[in-house]
Amino acid sequence: MPGKGDAPVLPGARAVARYVRISPMKARRVVNLVRGLPAKEALTVLQFAPQAASEQVYKVLASAIANAENNERLDPDALLVSEAYVDEGPTMKRFQPRAQGRAYRIRKRTCHITVVVEAVAPAAPTKAASKKAAPAKQTTPAATESKTEGAE
Description:
This is Large ribosomal subunit protein uL22. Part of the 50S ribosomal subunit. This protein is of the alpha+beta class. The protein is 38% helix and 26% strand. The protein has one domain: CATH 3.90.470.10. The radius of gyration is 26 Å and the shape is elongated.
């Protein structure tokens, strides 16, 4: 299935929560934390985020991971949060009585939270990474003692 500009489309899944009773600006703060992270790491970040919106975003992300696992047969450990955005939903208008018979409008904002996860192939270790992983030369205790004795 060709995508935009005939670029290869990575397998993935998405989940949408609509009419969530949180201000879109507050939800965007939380969504910006997890965009581009591996899915399991993003769940951990959301679990410990102090914002109230993190609970709703956590549920949407968990749903997207479950969709990828059950519908697309993807490995949940190889998923990446490729897209995450918050759109504005309808605003409920309420009125609060004020002094001298006036009415004050209160806007109860809602939002739509969308999270898209994609499967990524595990990156093969490069030559530079394998050199860093090689253990350093170990020196014997006798060699280090002779070096320290000569320095004194």
